[in-house]
Amino acid sequence: MTEAIDQRVAEVLRALGVPHEVLQIDPSFADTAAFCEKYGIPLVNAANTIIVASKKEPRQYAACVVQGTRRLDVNHAVRRLMGVSKVSFATADETKALTGMMIGGVTVFALPPELCIYVDDTLLECEQIILGGGSRSTKVRIAPAVFDRLPNASVIAGLSSSA
Question: Are 90 and 52 in contact (CB under 8 A)?
Answer without folding.
Answer: yes
